[in-house]
Structures are given as C-alpha cells and as structure tokens.
Amino acid sequence: MSSLPLLGQPGLDATFAWLPDGPRSAGQYLADVTMLQAQLEAQAPAGNWLLNLCQDRYRFAVGFAAGLLAGKTSLQPASQSPETLRRLQADYPGLLCLCDSDFDSLDLPRLDFPAQLALQEDDQRAAVNPENPPKMPLIPAEQVAAILFTSGSTGQPQAHAKTWGKLLANGRAEAERLGLLQQAHAIVGTVPVQHSYGFESTFLMALAGGGSFWAGKPFFPQDIAAALAAVPQPRLLVTTPFHLSALLSAEVELPPVDRLLSATAPLSGDLARRAEAVCQAPLFEIYGSTESGQLASRRTTEGDAWQLLPGVQLTQTGDVTTASGGHVEGEVPLGDLIELAGDGGFTLVGRHADLINIAGKRTSLAYLNHQITAIAGVTDAAFFLPDEAGPDGITRLTAFVVAPGMDRRQLLAALRQRIDAIFLPRPLVFVDALPRNSTGKLPRSALQALFEERLAHGSH
Fold first, then answer.
1. What span, in angstroms and rounded, lies between the C-alpha atoms of 22 and 24?
2. Is there a cis peptide before residue 234, judged by omega within 30 degrees of 0?
3. Could you tell me the mean pLDDT of each successive run of 10 residues in the chain, 460 residues long?
C-alpha cells in the first residue's frame, strides 16, 4: 500500500494559513498537528471517529490531520443540528467532538481545542528550527480519511467514505485546473470547511496544491472585504451565488481579487458578468457532488459547457450518467441529466429529482428558478412542488419570492413572458427571505416547512 505526504507545500517555511495575528507556516502547522495528535491519543475515548466542529478553518485543519494520524476518521455532516448529532452518535459509537467555540454538543464526548495551541497562536511562534524540522507525516493512500454527508436537500443525508489518496488527488486536480499549481494563491472562503465544497476548495486545495487559506469564514460583505485585505495577492475568493450576489449588492470597496470560484447553486450569466466587471478577475464555477467529488469546471461568461477535471470520465446508459476515473471513488451515478459533447465536455440539462410533468408538459424546477430570478426586481426565489395535494386533490406548483417593491400582478406578468402558463405558480408567496443554509442551498425539508407554515396562515 502506497503512502502519501500530508502536505504539498514547497517547504516547511511556506505559508499554509493566514490568521488574524499573522501567517502560519507549513512547519508550524505540523508542530500543532503533532501536539493535538498526542492529546487525542492520550485523552480521547476509544473510537475511530472525529466529529470536527471547529469553526476556525485553521483549527479544523489541525484537527483533521491530528485525527487522521491518531487513527480517527473525520465525520463531516452538512448540518450540525441536534438531530444530526444524535444520528451520528447512534451510527458511529465512540465518536469525539472537537470544538473551538461554545457550540452545544449535547452529551457527546467532547474535546475543546487545546488552550496551549491557542496561546502559541497569540504569541506568534518563531519560525521552524531548520536544525530540527518536524517530520512530514506519510499516510496510506487507501486509508479512509473522511466521511462526507449529502445535504439532505432531497431526503435523508447519505454518508460517503473518502480515502486519503483520492482526497489529495481531488484537491490537486482542482488546483491544476484553476492555475494554482503554477502560482499559489491565498484562498478566502465564505463556505464552511465541513461542507464538501468548502472542504475541497479551501482546505484540500491548499493542502494538495501548495497554497494557503484564510482561517475565518466571512459572511457579511464587509467581513469578506476585510478577509481579502488580510491576505496577500494573488487572491482566490471561494463563494456561492447567494454570497456573491449579496457582496455585489452591498457595493463595498474590495481589494484586488485575482480569481473567483462559485458552486452549490446555478450561477446566472448576468451575476457572473457583474462579478467579473466589479472584481476585474475571471470567475469559474466548479461542478460536482458529495458522492463524486469535484468533476468539472467552466468560466461562466464563456458559455454553458463544462470541462472535466484531469482523469475524470463520464459514461451514459439511457438517462443515467456515471462518473469514474481520476479522484472519483469507484463509479458514481449522478443526479443530473447531462448532455455529453464530442470534445469531452458536457452541458447540464437539469436534475432527475427536479423534473416535473403537468398535463403532459415537462420542465425542471431548476429551469423555472432560473427564469424567475432573472426578472428585474427579484432578489431571490424558488419554485416548489409540495408533498401533498390541496383540498381539491390537486398538487399545485408553488413559488416563494423575495421581491421588494413588486406585487403579484407585476411578477406574474413578467413570468408569463418567460414560461408556459401551465407552470405559473399557484400560489405565489412573497417572503422576506428564503430559508437557505450556510452554503446558500435550499433543503427541500426547509421549503416544505415554509409551505406548511404559509398554507396554515393563509398567506397566499
């Protein structure tokens, strides 16, 4: 069994992370990992699972590697709700929660991020001693390093095991596609590091590609601008359409950004063009899933076609497309309807779960969402097909819309210009905000709860 090094940085003095008090080198990172590993081995309960709940991206990175070296697989659910914690406790006996905040971990075994590491961070540790450098850990390529969970947006979250070798290959393939192997970038991410997109495009890409990342998770536009200013050029902003739209609407002054990366939801061409114009930088989208890892990328302003990452292959049987090769674990059926192109690229037609058929006419929720959010004055919207029929026995297509200053008549008139009348929403519900999660996604369960709440109150 082959083994692979923990870090891809060019040397131990290379910067691996940026914290509010300054940079952390690869060597300092390894020293922190070694200290936490020893504490895990001495104090942690027996068990093979580490639930890394650290909000700070650097502390997550320390915990991930320390757990890996201590023989603990990282559990990374998309949600940190009490229900999720209870389910994990039942499914993974002996798990340990690693926390760096006052997060309520219920009665699960818990280790708070060690105070001595926090003190060392505040005291600005000296550079690594060249006469006694830390040893680079080697990890078996086939070792299961993490278990990632789907968001549950279309049902119960599903677990997917990821081996160390495939995770490294994923991060390196993405770094190669974005040009980060040729020139290392400082990465600022607005998405949680536990989520597959944040995990792959901030932590893994720095780990395998030799770059560095900002330790925080900025959310508000001013915080994003401050985080970008805290790291040197070249800078990569890893974000979502939801965060990107809010950032541009706020019109805050941004330091130079050299690349933008977006995922988790479809990105409109208009938003992509605005982002490139404001930042004077190319914007790329990444396509993939928790099940498959990252598969392809595109520059949104150059067209709809996606190009596969190195080594990845797609095959089709009927409407089902399967990903394999490269860093993909085995053969993974995809949830999207895909049209393959002769040059090895592809276009997305829609999601299998999104397809709807009304009176013999077919469309997808993704298409409808794209059309309604393209209407001037609409800041956010989502179509929804509820689980149950109405009192008349008919299941009616619903739309939730955030559109300050518009009324129902105006919106329906604009929508009639874009979609077939049979797909007009009944009811059309105006809301102040949609129940998006921290990555900008809209879980079906959240939309169903919103539908039931509004239906009960007659708000349509």
1. 7
2. yes
3. 87 94 94 93 84 96 96 91 89 93 91 71 50 82 94 70 97 96 96 93 94 95 97 96 90 96 86 94 95 96 94 93 96 91 83 67 79 90 79 74 93 90 89 85 85 68
Rounded (10°) angle between helices 26-43 and 115-122: 160
Neighbours of 89 (CB within 10 A): 18
Domains, the chain: 3-349 (3.40.50.12780), 359-456 (3.30.300.30)
pTM of the full structure: 0.81
DSSP-assigned beta bridge partners for residue 313: 324
- φ and ψ of 328, to 5 deg: -75, 135
SS3 of 135-202: CCCEEECCCEEEEEECCCCCCCCCEEEEEHHHHHHHHHHHHHHCCCCCCCCEEEECCCCCCHHHHHHH
Which amino acid does the sequence have at 175? A
Interatomic CA distance for residues 87 and 58, integer angstroms:
27
